[in-house]
Structures are given as structure tokens and as C-alpha cells.
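Checklist before submission:
- one chain only
- standard amino acids only
- sequence pasted in full

Submission:
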Amino acid sequence: MSLAVNNLLTLSSHDRICTAFGIKIVTGSEIVHIAKSAGYDSLFIDLEHTTLSLRDAGQQCITAISAGITPFVRVPHQCGDGFIQRVLDMGAMGVIIPHIHTVDDARRAIRISKYPPMGKRSITGGLPQYQMTPVPASKVQKEVNESGSTVFIMIETVDALDNVDAIAALPGCDVLLIGCNDLAMEIGCAGDWDAPKFRNALRKVGVTCRKHRKIFGIAGVYTRPDLMDVVISEYGARWIVGAQDVTLLVSGSKANVDILQSMQRSEQLVVNGKNGILES
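Returned file contents:
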């Protein structure tokens, strides 16, 4: 049995972007098929800013692997090594680690995410990444370390930005992911995607990724195609996080209501007081 394909690694190795759909409020696995049908390459399943459970995320990961859309899971801040290991064991093809500050923070995240000799993750059988099929431990160790446990280090603090070169140099750090909203707040330009210091931060991470041959990811600015064009074509971003389920549900619902309300006749119908006949 082969390990599930990691679309991010496959696409980025051919210098192509890998798109991601965010899951925040929908607990069922149906949302995975919707994302796949829409054409997304991967999932950003969020356990940091949501009430999704491990079971919710696990079922979505299993469904995603079967559907051919690669599941990645963001874990809560300071969730502990055991939690990260459970996320990987339940079917995630990678973990997204938020609020990194120091090189040691990143090193600890890598250590629990990778099997020896790269890390200290404990091995188990029946992994969804292998369709629950028994696989020799040596095969799991090698293949999962290479492409079944992608480690995303989020660059969303001033400290992480200052330490980004040393963080990127760590073996096992696979992706540097900019969390645009938190990073912009930290450097004093919340929501101002055109601020020079924000643009400089994007450029710095892009340069660092190229230097250390790591994947550059970005989340939070998908509504600015002009900026995304620069980030992709000039700075080299390859993992592109799009909208979350809640955002699309709200925007889609609003658009639908606007259409329905536009169908109402401009002139109002009134009731004739004598015969009850509706007339304009």
C-alpha cells in the first residue's frame, strides 16, 4: 500500500501553486467533497479558532485522503505534543503550528511531528494515510517523514519574523506560512496590506524560503488578487489558502438574498378596501 499523495509537495515540486480550502464551522465530511468538487488541492482544517473536535477533523482527513484532496490541520496554540501526534495519527498529512516565536519553538514542533531520526514521534499502525493497511514500520518511518507529516511553521509574530532565517534552516521545517492578520497586527499595520513594512515582511519570508528551499505559504489576503499576484510571481508563494467555509456561506447567502430581493416589484401591491382585490 502506498502513502497518500501529498498534493502540496507534488505541485510545488513542479513550481505550481497548491490551493487550500479552509474548514472552520462545518463538522461533517460533506464539506470535503464540496471543496474537491470546487477544484481545491488541499484543506486547511482549523482546530485553533473553532469548536471542531478531533473526531470531526479526523473524519474530514479520512474523507479527504479518499477523495484525493490533501488534509492539513492547524492545531491550537500550546496544545502539547500528544495532541499534535494524535492529529497526525488520525489522518492529517501535515500540521500547522501557530504562534511560533523562537527557533526552539519550531524545533519542538518538528520533533513531535517526525519519526526518528528527524524527531521523536511515536509510531503506530492502522494509519489512514495508508488506508488503514498494515505497513512495515521502516516504510512508514521513511515515507511519512518525507511526505506524510508536512510541518508548517507559522510566521505571525515579530519574533518569528526576526528569527525566520534560523527557523527555515531547521531540517524538518517544510513550510513557512505567513498568518497575515496576526503578523500585520504585531508589526503595527493591522489590515493595511499595502503598508511598506508588511510588504517587506512578505518579501523577507519569500527570500528566506528560496534560500533554504522551503515552501512559502500565505493565508489571509486571498481577497487581494493584485497582492497575491506579487506574492506568487515575485516572492514565490506556493501554498495559497483561500476562503473558509463560514466566509463563503455568509457571502454566498448574502448574494443569494440580494438576487431574491431584486425580484420584488418596485411598485407595491395594495388591497382595495371595498372588494379585497390586490391592485398596484
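Reviewer check: The beta strands are 18-23, 42-46, 70-74, 94-97, 150-155, 175-179, 215-219, 237-244, 270-271, 278-279.
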